[in-house]
Amino acid sequence: PEIYEMQVRAIFEAAVQTTPRVTPEVMIPLVSAKREVELVKSRIEAVAAQVRTETGVDFAYHLGVMVETPRAALRADGGSDSERRQAEGLASSALALSQRLPRHASRPSP
């Protein structure tokens, strides 16, 4: 989790220096459980608050997840009802997030 803090701090510190202001998109990778998202999200929110306080600049960011589908499916298949509901929730979240992809798909590659 500490690597996420270091990475998002660098992203947020760079974002507050841009003109015009950019809105960074932060992705939490390799997620297979809702609790993982909750833990990392709370740390990202804390870093954002620290950067806002330190710089005096308010900024927005988008947060998403990259679901590790095979691991999530394995957890759901052999797990408890609670774990299956979590996997279904992650699948629903991934579907909702994927609706944003066409916007990115039309961007040319660097």
Count of DSSP E strands?
2
Question: What's the gyration radius in Å?
Answer: 16 Å
Query: Topology as H/E string?
Result: HEHEHHH
- Our estimate of the beta-strand percent is 5-15%
Given as residue ranges, the uncertain stretches (5+ residues, pLDDT < 50) are: 101-110
Shape: elongated
Q: Widest sheet: strand order?
A: 1-2
What is the average of the pLDDT values?
A: 77
The main sheet comes to:
2 strands, parallel
| Helix fraction by DSSP (H/I, runs of at least 4) | 55-70%
What structural class results from the helix and strand content? mainly alpha
The total of helices stands at: 5
N- and C-termini, Cα separation = 29 Å
Describe, in plain words, how this protein is organized in 3D:
- This protein starts with a helix and ends in a 5-residue tail after the last helix.
- It contains five helices and two strands; from the N terminus they run H-E-H-E-H-H-H.
- The protein has helices at residues 2-15, 34-55, 69-78, 81-98, 101-105, and strands at residues 25-31, 62-67.
- 63% of the residues lie in helices and 12% in strands.
- The protein is mainly alpha-helical.
- The protein has a two-stranded parallel sheet with strand order 1-2.
